[in-house]
Amino acid sequence: MKRIIFFFGIALLMLSCASEVKVEPVTNAEDYDRFLSSEVSTSAGEAKNEVEFWSKRLNTDTTGVGDLGPLAGAYQRLFDANADPEQLENAARCYRRGMEISANNKDIYARGLARTYISQHKFREAEAILRESYAGISSKRASEMMLFDVLMEVGKYEEAETFLDKVKNNSDYNYLIRKAKWSDHTGDLTNAINYLESARDIAKSRDSKSLKIWTYSNLADFYGHAGRIKEAYNHYLKTLELQPDNAYAKQGIAWIVYSYERNDEEALRILDSVIGQRPEPSLFLLKADMLESMGEHQAAESARARFIEEIENKNFGRMYNTYLVEYYAETDPARAVAIAREEVEARATPETYSLLAFSALQSGDEGQALKLIENHVSGKTFEPMAAYYSALVYKANGKAEKVAKLKSELIEASFELGPILSEKIEKL
């Protein structure tokens, strides 16, 4: 479902030959059916009530400075619940206003604005605000943690590590989740899980609902990377027990049903319930893949068209550029190259360079694609999609040995890549 290639024997045994081996199901509809009803959708309603409450306070306050932060947070939660990008812009507007009028807490509003910019994929803008705030009067530790976050996003990994070292504290939840992210980045899945499990223990000891929700859902992802599918499933269920309308956890279960159990119809049923609750654009691409697996090609095209419609009708900015590159690489390679270049300019990571290389390949420039892979991708990431694009580029340039090596690695990442790509990988 997610990001990184890890070499796990169970996945190789059970997933690389999924078309030939019937795996034992780990899911049970009786576990999650009660979470699929639209009646469990409470987060959006709660966030709307918060927005209304803080807006009224802001209107009656002479300065409003004390209400801007809570109002911005409510807008962010409303976006989390309904995927409406306008809510992020509302949050950003509140934080900018807070920076303008606050006498003593400008750095708090600056971090809030940076966090919102990260959600909007305005990574360079977030970096600039954090650096300026960090250089002035600010909570240094909180700023250092956020600088780590944004520097990881823009591909400045060495500097990100220096900020991580500054905040080192193995008893600090916020440090542990970032250390897990760093371990994930370096391909050390074992320690990534260990750090997240330590963070989970802290969240449980505090009995913090929000921290447990975040940690359970992210641990589920990591367990999936490690081939620990049953544990992944159980942690998605734990997330739903705390937040019954958590769209991310439901999507995670849908992915297990689809990619591991290969039950397309049931996976689609779960996914449709998520789309009905929170119509986040990329879900329509996932739906298209599920429909393709079912042989419903016309319906799959309709789902892809819905993805483009959602992007065009709402102001998502750069939030879905990665998906747009992948989409247009197949239908309009020149447009894909242009968007990929924008992404590289915004965040020069191995992953964005791999997208640019794939776009160049699709537009017929195999030589340029190879240069991009060799100079900016090879040996720099454990991301399975980057490995897949690299394999395509190597194949186009006649480098069979490198293709074979990547193919064996990609087969091990079958769960993360899903059935559609796994079939393509078998043909490399």
Beta-strand percentage? Answer: under 5%
How many alpha or pi helices? 24
Number of strands: 0
Low-confidence stretches: 1-20
In the CATH hierarchy, the third-tier topology of the domain at 323-426 is known as Serine Threonine Protein Phosphatase 5, Tetratricopeptide repeat
Supply the helix-strand structural class: mainly alpha
Tell me about the largest β-sheet.
none
CATH superfamily of the domain at 323-426: Tetratricopeptide repeat domain
| Average pLDDT metric | 92
Tell me, what's the shape?
globular
Global Rg: 22 Å
**Terminal residue distance:** 21 Å
Q: Please name the CATH architecture of the domain at 323-426.
A: Alpha Horseshoe
What is the N-to-C order of secondary-structure elements (H for helix, E for strand)? Answer: HHHHHHHHHHHHHHHHHHHHHHHH
* CATH C-level of the domain at 323-426: Mainly Alpha
Helix content: over 70%
List key phrases describing it.
single chain, 428 residues, mainly alpha, Serine Threonine Protein Phosphatase 5, Tetratricopeptide repeat, 24 helices, 0% strand, disordered N terminus
What's this entry about, in short?
With 428 residues, the protein is mainly α.
Question: What is this structure's SSE topology?
Answer:
Elements: H1 9-15, H2 29-32, H3 43-60, H4 65-82, H5 85-101, H6 106-119, H7 123-135, H8 140-153, H9 157-166, H10 173-185, H11 189-206, H12 209-225, H13 229-242, H14 247-260, H15 264-277, H16 282-293, H17 297-313, H18 321-331, H19 333-346, H20 350-362, H21 366-376, H22 384-396, H23 400-412, H24 414-426
